[in-house]
Amino acid sequence: MIDFIWNLFQDSDIQRLRAEAERRGEHSSSMQERAASTEARLLELERRHEQLKLVTLSLWRLLKDKVDLSDAELEKYVASTDLLDGVADGAVDLSKELIKCRHCDHVHLNTAVVCPFCGARSSSRNAFDVT
Q1: How far are the Cα atoms of 58, 70, 116, 117 from residue 66, in angstroms, in the given order?
Q2: What's the CA angle centered on 33, arms 31 and 36, to 5 degrees?
Q3: What is the pTM of this model?
Q4: Region of 5 on the Ramachandran plot (φ > 0 left; ψ -120 to 50 alpha; else beta)
Q5: Per-residue pLDDT tens digits for 3-44
Q6: Boundaries of every domain in the chain
Q7: Which of 14, 37, 78, 113 shows a CA-CA span of 20 to 30 A to 45?
Q8: Under DSSP, is residue 53 helix (H, G, I), strand (E, B) or coil?
Q9: What are the pLDDT digits (tens) for 55-86?
């Protein structure tokens, strides 16, 4: 009789552990999917960064060739652009130029090509939106 009770206890414990293992497996799958999504997003951002570098370098070469600008003049314009927000910090604060994403309703810069929250592409296209 004690063996029967012990077996019932063991069976219930085994079922509990199997259910817990299954839940952890589902959680692990979810985490793997999120990691893959994050990796894909990182690769897309790296690709966009390279595109922006290409466009920026092309524009600078065009200005140098057609308008005969110098590197010193570019540095001057970069410095004055940096000061548009009142702080010389190597970045421009465009927080006054925020828009709400039409897909996820998060707020992001209106200069973003894609929403940084949901990845939805902006409806407007510009010279920096190379495909």
Answers
A1: 12, 11, 36, 39
A2: 110
A3: 0.48
A4: alpha
A5: 778 787 888 888 888 999 888 888 888 888 889 899 999 999
A6: 2-88, 94-125
A7: 78
A8: helix
A9: 999 999 999 999 989 999 999 988 988 887 77
